[in-house]
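TOKENISE THE FOLD
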Amino acid sequence: MNVANPWKSYRQVATQTASPGQLVLMLYDGALRFLERGLAGFDHEDPAEANMAVHNNFQRALDIVRELNLALNLEQGGEVASTLRRLYDYFDRLIWESDLRKKPDGAREVVRHLTVLRDAWASMLNNQGTVPIENTLVKSVLSPV
């Protein structure tokens, strides 16, 4: 008998019912979580365990940053989407270099910048009902799903 994992079911429903803006926030949270786990991997005593923790988590963070980058709508998003594209490309390079060289500095920088982006995005979503421009921004920056 196959027992369903309730946490997995919850996450699946949450992602299927979330708005595009909420999905971006979830992706930011996921990237930050994987980056933090990867950075924690540098503290492992066993080199093989450290390398595996760093590599696997940084790769997951890279996947998320690349998905955020691919979701941008450069035609409708204007300068905001172009700026995000450059930022995501920069994040991609820093995470990749941190993983390759097994040095945490680049990943730490991405965490700092991504935290600012995540908090600004969350603030925008919280104010969405009071400021109509935000809804337009979300729709113009993201490509249609």
